[in-house]
Write a structure and sequence with these properties.
Number of strands: 11
CATH architecture of the largest domain: 3-Layer(aba) Sandwich
Strand order of the largest sheet: 1-7-6-5-4-2-3
Strand content: 15-25%
Distance between the termini: 25 Å
Largest sheet: 7 strands, mixed
Number of helices: 14
Shape: globular
Number of domains: 2
Helix content: 25-40%
CATH superfamily of the largest domain: Type I PLP-dependent aspartate aminotransferase-like (Major domain)
Structural class: alpha/beta
Amino acid sequence: MPSTNANTQAAPTDFRSDNVTGVAPQIMEAIMAANAGTVTSYGDDETTARVQARLAEIFETDVWMFPVATGTAANSLSLAALTPSHGSVYCHREAHIEVDECGAPEFYTGGAKLVLLGDADGKFTAAELDANLSSAHIGFQHAVQPAAVSVTQAAELGTVYSVEELTAIGDVAKKFNLGYHMDGARFANALINLGCTPAEMTWKAGVDVLSFGATKNGAMAAEAVIFFKEELAENFLYRRKRGGHLFSKMRFLSAQLEAYLTDDLWLKNARYSNGLATRLATALEKLPGGKLFAPVQANEIFIGLPASVIEAMEADGHLFYRWTTDGDNIVIRLVTGFSTDDSMVDAFIAAATKLRN
């Protein structure tokens, strides 16, 4: 029922994250279907085997796939497979593995060091990586030894590495004999933006291991660690077990992944959320004082608006995260999801427009 208070938004919007969304109906149905009968435990089931086969088709090569429940586990265990305790992992200073995983990569690698790169667009370049590695004291026993590089695709500011950028980083990784990891929590969103194939965005660019995200794009709790080289996956069974992510009832993770990949649901969901983000960003940027903080290339928007607008939106109950300041503007992060309704976008645009005018 509409509020009688003109200063109160009757239906506040929630753009805090794509983690606030529910579960895609197709995936929930698959979880329920997986609940029938008895199934072999610990991943030795037909559903998990089908997911592995489907991913091999999607990536156009043999893959070694391991379901886990969280992105933190996928990233940290992947890096542990690439990095000894005396090693270092090169990543962006805003990367999830640096900012949002509570030291889990360091923990699972046994103490490896994260070396931070990058600038304001959420990405780092091959040239920057090469320059840092060239002065990394390789072979000097008093220094950590470079072991891996990790890129986030899409990056933390919603920007996307081009295939050319990924390949250039892969070339540097090969030059210095580093493992190459991709944090693909929003892999599908990045893929839609580039319009390339999964193979072109991963192993053809030199990527060795991918954290293939599903949770942010419609799953309940399911990610897949995907290796493109068998030798790197040899000990991962034990790492996953020791890390607490070998599920006895693995079929419930695999059922989510199978439904996610069926009929290109993963791509449809990402295309939809990307489109809404573009529409929302385009409208907000046209407001007086509106200024994008980073290009909108996936489903995240970082936009600066006057403090008075931000404060009024918050007072009306709209949910989003403040990110930083940019002159007189407050930069906020807005994230669309597979289940974000058009009306939510319309409501946010209308409220911001009214307050700005």
